[in-house]
Design a protein that fits this description.
The protein is of the alpha/beta class and 303 residues long. The protein has helices at 19-29, 41-50, 69-78, 96-105, 117-142, 152-169, 183-190, 192-208, 235-248, 279-295; strands at 11-15, 34-38, 55-61, 86-91, 109-112, 173-180, 216-221, 224-230, 264-271, 301-302. Bound molecules: 3'-deoxy-guanosine-5'-triphosphate and magnesium ion (MG) (3 copies).
Length: 303
Amino acid sequence: MQAEPDNDQPTILIVDDERVNRSMLAELLGQQYRVLLAKDGPSALTIAARESHRLLLVLLDVSMPGMNGYEVLTQLRKQEATAGIAIIFITGQSDAAAEEYGLRLGAADYVSKPIRPAVVSVRVRNQIDLALQRQALQRLAQVDGLTNLANRRHFDDMLQRSQRLCLRRHDPLGLALIDIDHFKLYNDHYGHVQGDEALKQVAGTLARHARRPYDLAARFGGEEFALILPGHADAVAVVERFRQEVQKMAIAHAASTTAPELTVSCGVLTIHCGQTDGLEDCLRRADELLYEAKTSGRNRVCA
Ligand code: GH3
Ligand code: MG
Ligand code: MG
Ligand code: MG
């Protein structure tokens, strides 16, 4: 993941065509949140796309020249990255039909002008709390509890997204399947608790090899891991370095017939853009390469 220069206050985007409204809201919310401002729909969409990874809430004026708030909401919902951002409409219309329309479009809440600061603060706080809870739940649903890596479900999801990304960018997509060697013997010899510790250590090393923003290290299941490396021309080299580092951790494995320490076998497939094979086929081929690594002596990378 990339380093974030700013603090981690929740980010709010205020969109209003009138400067006085923007400054009033910015002053009201600026103490507790990181506040961004936009004076029209198109710039709101640009900022939201750029900040989608940390933007939790948009305070959105309904009537603006050019693109109105309803259109902005509709556009935000169309893009995967911005679809989940909470929206509070702000409007001068004290019109029940307009309010109903906004809520039906999927706004989380509605406040009317003239703005009552205390009410806006509370409504914003409520929506931010909900958004943070949603984020925490989403994270729980994506992460493997033992290793903290992406779980299988998230891996499947990200593999599909990575394939789309690589198609768009005309990039190759590296896919690795990794399996710990003689891990049943490790458990038998050292016990399941120490087995879990070894899994965590291997996972930590794997995570350090998923360096770029779109790389993903996952627990594929049991003592198997996976690595997605979008846009890497040298996926094999990355995985080979990982394999060597696992061996260098020197986790003793007295029962292994491969080496005195814990080792891994890896299959690496490079999917070329334009190749339209289904991902199931790709996974099957990566698994065949892993099997080749196992049958040709373990503790190696086959590509
Ligand atoms: P190979 O080198 O052919 O991969 O042999 P292996 O023994 O590693 O493969 P096998 O599939 O026979 O055994 C996998 C072992 O991984 C068996 C299972 O108990 C262990 N395992 C799977 N998940 C966990 C876990 O969460 N914790 C621990 N401690 N062990 C696990
Ligand atoms: Mg306006
Ligand atoms: Mg296995
Ligand atoms: Mg194994």
